[in-house]
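Exercise 7.
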Amino acid sequence: MAGTELSKTRQVYLALRDRIERGVFAREGGLPGEQALAAELMVSRVTLRRALAALEDEGLISRRRGAGTFLTERGKPQPIVVDMADVMPQLVAMGQATAVNLLEFDYVVALPSVSEALRLDDNALVQRSVRSRRIDAKPFSYLITCVPEPIGRLFSREELATQPLLSLLERAGHFADHASQDISAELATPEIARVLEVTVGAPLIALQRVVYDRAGRGIEHLRALYRPDRYAFRMELVRRGSNALRRWEPAGQQMHMMEAAS
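Solution. The predicted structure, written as tokens, is:
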């Protein structure tokens, strides 16, 4: 029973934390009363109070006797806007501003899809790494990166655990010239849910980026999964052309990425 109760507390904690980080409670001015919240989440008030205590220990909420439960400044999402027209230097800066945890590192035979995207020979080896990033101690992304073996051998596991990959690639003499990028959505698997601190099956933004050098050689294959409460895309559009030929195009060929990263 104790294990079941702990599991319920964890689930309520994650559900409330998710709402906090998506700004739901910020729009409402505070959290609902305990009785209403416990009924909505279908748990006992004891379980709810344990989850609230964990959130308070994290500094995300403040409970005031007789007044209610409110968000602290830390619990209020603050957006960061990144200009996608200058994306590569800003990705490096973001890497330097976030904490990274290197979860896996090895040299493996590239999957067919990765080999094709990087334009490698069949059965070619790649350096495969799995990393997670956090902003202000909160999980932000789950990154799976593959780099051709000859390039990967130019930096160490320890360096990848402490430095942005793009910086390491440039130091090794491999400069990003252009990239292809696809954006979709996926559901969190148990392992990814654990790392990103979301519930299993929670929706995630899925991004796949393949980076090429000036000669068209693939130097990086990235599969990234992001919490949608901390990562979104925004593009400014203008209509160009005349009459029936008018169409929407990116304004100034610029795209902006917004992260709710508090």
